[in-house]
Prior knowledge:
This protein has a 4-stranded antiparallel β-sheet. The chain is globular and about 65 Å long. It is 51% helix and 11% strand. The protein contains 11 helices and 4 strands.
Amino acid sequence: MARRPRVxxxxxxHIINRGVEKRVIFLDRDDYEYFEELLERYTKEFTIIxxxxxxxxxxxxxxxxxxxxxxxxxxxQINANYAIYFNKKYKRVGHLWQGRFASWFVTDEAYxxxxxxxxxxxxxxxxxxxxxxxxxxxxxxxFLNYDSLAKWLKNSYIAQNYKEDKxxxxxxxxxxxxxxxxxxxxxxxxxxxxxxxxELDIAKLQKMLKSFExxxxxxxxxxxxYKLGYSQHAIAKVLKVAQSTVQRVIRKx
Length: 253
């Protein structure tokens, strides 16, 4: 059976990849840190925003935001370079990864929030740590120890919306995830159409937001667009404003 074409458009993605035969891919601290160095290098090179990540012994989770259609190129660099490093260090040959990475297009804010919480709580569910902040190989560890926040996480959703309010960050990250809702969201995400369909939607959004007399009218249009199903990310991109600005407008209504 032919593989389903991968959706590759600008937007948010949840990405997972595992070691071949579920083997361990991070054997020591240097391995985890080298993978984080790759994330830092290539998020910068491909203009990608890292919103959340968790590196587990035999797999990893990433929640990223692409600005261009370059998801596959970004992931190819991450996976290929880490495989070369790992095979050389441990004197092995052959495939390191189970297959091509799995990715889900994040369709709305509800999915985004749920995924951040799900990813950051992954080490606890795997019994690798008792708390999010104590697991060193995740973004949650950095968000809750803000003095050590890496530059490549400073444009993340949490850093932009919560700043240095650790109590608010902690409350958000420890929210209970509804597993049934998470699976429903993943199924909905997998039904995303080809990029051309999305481009037509964006064209309609651009027309809606083309002109307004004042900020009050602009905010009204923002809320209308959001109710029609457009994401905060798409609205912010068309208006050329920060997503947090759009979020504040919607929250006030």
